[in-house]
Amino acid sequence: MDLTALARRREVVLLVLIALLLAAVGARAPVFLTPASLGDVLTDTAILLMLACGQMAVILTRGIDLSVASNMAFTGMCTALLSKYHPELPIAVTLALAPLIGFCLGAVNGALIAWVKIPPIVVTLGTLSAYRGMIFILSGGASVVTHEFSRPYLDFPRQSLFGVSALLWIALVVCAGMAVFLNFSRTGRSLYAVGGNPLAARYVGIGIERCQFLVYCLSGAIAGLCGYLWVSRYAIAFTEVAFGYELTVIAACVIGGVSVAGGIGSVSGCLLGGLFLGIIGNALPVIQVSPFWQMAISGFVILCAVIVNSRSEARKGKLILRETEPPVPAPLQVRPETPS
Amino acid sequence: MEILALSGVSKSFPGVKALDDVRLSLRAGEVMALVGENGAGKSTLVKILTGIEKPDAGEILIDGAPVDFGSPFDAWRAGITAIHQETVMFDDLTVAENIHMGHHPTLGRGPFRRFVDWRAMRAHTSAVLARLEVNISPDTVLRELTVAQKHIVGIAKALSHDSRIVIMDEPTAALSQHEIGELYKIVAQLKAAGKAVLFISHKFDELFAIADRWTVLRDGRFIGAGTIGDVTRDELVTMMVGRRLDQVFPKVTVPIGETVLEVEDLSHPTEFDGISFKLGRGEILGFYGLVGAGRSEAMQALFGITRPSRGRVRIAGREITVRNPSDAIRAGIAYVPEDRQIQGAILPMSITENITLPMVDRVNGGPVLRPKRERALARRFGERLAVKATHWDQPVANLSGGNQQKVLIAKWLATDPAVIILDEPTKGIDVGSKAAVHEFMGELVKSGLAVILVSSELPEILGMSDNIIVMHEGRIRRRFRRAEATAEAVVTAATGGA
């Protein structure tokens, strides 16, 4: 691949952007660039990365899952209460149960969207509130706080293997699994088809409903797993856990080049988008920039990303006159997962 | 050897009999030309063959065995591939994936046997493309290809799945001359490979160049079939149009007054060239041509939707510059577009809002809306056109197609134009509404308006126009006065003949 083609890849652009960001922050506060500090940033971002992967699969099919944060908070509360009242349960049960609960919540979304044919934004806006409300019903509005959790519940994500925390290992497995699924399974490739051109997808025999159902289940299962990890990490479960976090997740996807019109997106882009937001979130306090700037900056970056994505949509005419040659394809058009 | 045989196929849509007892047969290694006017039923036939529509009656036999397509996928599995005018593919995926979508090859063994085998997919794609002798990389994203190249990918897809029947629906409509040559070569290869090709085209030159046999449809009926060597172009034209004019058009002839619109050498870099005409008060000027002849494109440039590269437009002798539609509206041009759902009516809005839309500022005379005046205006024009609605605040979405069309015309009449362009005003509406629209055109010219009628329906053009301009491939091919226009001459000009 030559240099210009390389420069056109969304991932490369993001990487350069992240490097610049790190350099700028490092110039002001060299402590930020120490391995320990960077490790903290990664650990801090791990949950966002997983959620973004799940969200991407949904957006690929022209959908959106606004209920991830609520799902996460509800599942988190479930596991917290379980840990409080049954501290004897092995951690493996929690690890299995969390994705399962999340899966079920996601399946409700998926069924309503795929078969009842309600638009995704409406369904997940509804379940966003519903799942949040269910936390209150479940907990009676009370929080579960540090000393009420069982030891293993809190310790597991902090265990380290080869110097890397279990939380990061889990994120790594989830994201790698997602990448393999999207790139190397027929179903994964079908998601690109469903979002890119639903009509054509039906022509080649892809079950659109099945794909839609599947992605909400996936996103739900990941959200469930993250629910446990989140509650364990912050050692507190309450009704407002991760309130509004779905927007950060969607932002990570959009920055990472996932097209909200469906059919375009890659795990690597998503990860870089998430990392970018994670670094901004962690770096700005270090260099004493107000956290409100964080929102402004991510908002600005999202707008830039969307503008860049829409640039290649210039309309071509029909070319009726015979002697006119088709226009040379615009040089800025690029590979599917990486709009310039 | 006969691969596909259709007999007695009929299909009705509400208000229209699209196909009536149609038959068709395709043989291996042959190109069958399917010929017919716009609206003759070709598209419906393709939809039935590709499983998109189900026939009401009739039989489809493949290799002599009856088949029943429940979905497009069934038809595709039976070996039928259609290459559509607007290709149904995935713009954001690579050529290799487009060809294999839904049937990705997998590794087949080892622990990852169910994983997609990208290498095999690329290799297979390269092999198929090489067989077609084209230079397209399997890794290219479809969006970057030209229309012709996309067609070729469609053909490669057909080949790679051993489709035995390839349907090409006006494949050359959007191709340049050089690309057409490439396509012909590939059609020849398909023939050599024993495929049956159903080739739909309006261009007689190409039919005579590549087809072996022909079938003519007219008004949804089978008219005839035979070998291409035994037929002449004139005979085909006669079969295509040779109908009695079963519709009586309420043509109102008023003496044509002074010139209101004069267009001189209107041109566009890629869509049309050298369009010049004059239009007088009380005149209906018909624009006829095949789909994609550049008529709508020229009208859109006239109305300021696209920018022409050169040309002059005069209204009542005064030269005007049209940079956008509101310039055109101010100058006295109104345009009722072809696709009323997409370009015309705003469906969730009420009849009143739709009618007053182009002149919200004029009706209200200020930033504050004056609902009473708006409604009065809407009622005046709505009633003049006899829009059938329960009340004027009803959403346009709830009206029938014909009534939607009337609302659109009312909307433009309310702008008090000197020239009104009607682009396919009766496409897809029922017979009763059609007659109402035709009658209304008479009223328009009686009231001193000049009308441009763009239509692909030959009887409508012949029945309603005072003068006819026939376009072909972006240029004016011939002009006719009403008296000298015959169906045969007009169609011949539209298909590129003398």
TrEMBL record, chain A:
The keyword Transferase does not apply. It is found in: Cell membrane. The keyword Membrane applies. The chain crosses the membrane at residues 91-114, 121-141, 161-182, 213-231, 243-262, 269-287, 293-310. GO terms for cellular component: plasma membrane. Keywords: Cell inner membrane, Cell membrane, Membrane, Transmembrane, Transmembrane helix, Transport. Part of the ABC transporter complex LsrABCD involved in autoinducer 2 (AI-2) import. Probably responsible for the translocation of the substrate across the membrane. Its main location: membrane. InterPro entries: ABC_transp_permease. The complex is composed of two ATP-binding proteins (LsrA), two transmembrane proteins (LsrC and LsrD) and a solute-binding protein (LsrB). It is a multi-pass membrane protein. One of its GO terms (molecular function) is transmembrane transporter activity. This is Autoinducer 2 import system permease protein LsrC. It comes from the Bacteria. Pfam families: BPD_transp_2.
TrEMBL record, chain B:
Residues 4-244, 243-498 form the ABC transporter domain. SMART domains: AAA. One of its GO terms (molecular function) is ATP binding. Its main location: membrane. It is found in: Cell membrane. It holds the Pfam family ABC_tran. The keyword Cell inner membrane does not apply. It is a peripheral membrane protein. SUPFAM superfamilies: P-loop containing nucleoside triphosphate hydrolases. Keywords: ATP-binding, Cell membrane, Membrane, Nucleotide-binding, Repeat, Sugar transport, Translocase, Transport. GO terms for cellular component: plasma membrane. It comes from the Bacteria. InterPro entries: AAA+_ATPase (IPR003593), ABC_carbohydrate_import_ATPase (IPR050107), ABC_transporter-like_ATP-bd (IPR003439), ABC_transporter-like_CS (IPR017871), P-loop_NTPase (IPR027417). This is Ribose import ATP-binding protein RbsA 1. It comes from Skermanella aerolata. The lineage of its organism: Bacteria, Pseudomonadati, Pseudomonadota, Alphaproteobacteria, Rhodospirillales.
